[in-house]
Amino acid sequence: YIYISRQNASRRVVTNYDEISKILSNYNIKPIYFEEITLEEEIMLMESMDGVVSPHGAGLTSIIWSRELSIFEIFNGVVIPPFFIIADVLGHDYTAILGDGKGDHRKRDKNIYVDPAEFQEKVEYFVL
User: Fold this and answer.
1) Closest of 32, 43, 24, 30 to residue 7, by C-alpha
2) Average confidence (pLDDT) over 67-92
3) Angle at which helices 116-127 and 17-26 cross, to 10°
4) What single DSSP character describes residue 59?
5) Distance between CA atoms of 104 and 46, rounded to whole angstroms?
6) Long-range contact set of residues 24-29: C-beta below 8 Å, sequence gap at least 24
7) Which of 103, 75, 119 is nearest to 10 (CA)?
8) Half-sphere exposure of 126 (CA within 13 A, CB side)
């Protein structure tokens, strides 16, 4: 399992990432920064994954490279469905969590606060 990180982005970053990263680490979910690897490396990585956790963003487009995948998408209070639709068409499992939008960006681009207790509960279910 991997976590597709947006922490280097200018928007839709997880504001309490320190708390969330500890939970991810407890379940051996490793962060990956797609901007630091080649497209070929991204494709090879996604072909070998069982699951991905990610804030809503373009990095989730990489789910098209997987045959069987579990996806856990994190929203900032605004639900935008394209990755659910792609997951459904490809037969992937899909779950999501609704965080709270934070910051001065327009509503759909706000940063994300994720409730740690709810996140841990969903991650535990997700990796089983």
Assistant:
1) 32
2) 96
3) 30
4) G
5) 33
6) 24/53, 24/123, 27/1, 27/123, 27/124, 27/127, 28/1, 29/1, 29/2, 29/3, 29/53, 29/123, 29/127
7) 103
8) 30
31-to-2, 23, 24, 52 alpha-carbon distances in Å: 6, 12, 8, 10
Query: Within the chain, where are the H helices?
Result: 17-26, 39-48, 82-90, 116-127
95 in Cβ contact with 75 (< 8 Å): no
Predicted confidence (pLDDT) at residue 128 exceeds the cutoff of 90: no
**Confidence check: pLDDT of 15 > 90:** yes
Predicted TM-score (pTM) of the model is 0.94
